[in-house]
Write a structure and sequence with these properties.
alpha+beta; about 30% helix
């Protein structure tokens, strides 16, 4: 079983500095060197600033993808922020290279989609995917995400924007209806 473990401001700040020891001291679960690595520091710095400005945002933003059975961190996942005024949330995730192609991205996406469906403030779920990221596109398409536009991200470059209604993932829906 996989769950998203939310972090606090001190954990975000430690990860943004790449300080694995301090991150592990502040995190409710052990984090990996990958999560404290340079490829993730920009995300953690943004999350640290968000939590400094609004501590309640920690319950929405990027956390640790935690494999309960193996008791290991396998990546990061969460929303970019709490729902906006229109009820939109955007999902972001990254699985450690050593743990890719093992179902962790799917499990994290499902957990986030269920979280969105369970919150009455959320109406729409968005993902933004680089045009050459075939694996992420295939995963999003499986859950009914449809293209709604394109955008330029200062870090990631060109992205295709996909959305799906949050209520599509309500627990009351039968698995066969999906």
């Amino acid at each position: 079983m996989v769950r998203i473990v939310h972090l606090s401001g001190p954990a975000f700040h430690a990860l943004a500095r790449g300080d694995l020891a301090a991150a592990n001291a502040a995190s409710p679960v052990p984090v990996s060197a990958f999560l404290a690595g340079p490829e993730n520091r920009g995300v953690w710095a943004r999350r640290a600033r968000q939590c400094d400005e609004d501590p309640a945002s920690a319950e929405w933003v990027t956390g640790v993808i935690w494999d309960e059975e193996n008791a290991i961190a396998v990546g990061r996942a969460g929303f970019h922020e709490a729902p906006d005024a229109a009820g939109l949330v955007e999902i972001g995730y990254a699985v450690e290279p050593a743990h890719r192609r093992q179902g962790y991205a799917r499990a994290a996406l499902e957990a986030l989609l269920q979280r969105a469906a369970d919150d009455p403030l959320v109406k729409t779920v968005r993902v933004s995917i680089a045009p050459d990221n075939v694996a992420s596109y295939a995963l999003a398409a499986h859950y009914g995400f449809v293209k709604v536009g394109e955008q330029w991200d200062s870090e990631d470059g060109r992205e295709i924007v996909y959305e799906v209604p949050a209520d599509q993932f309500s627990r009351s829906r039968k698995a066969s209806d999906r």
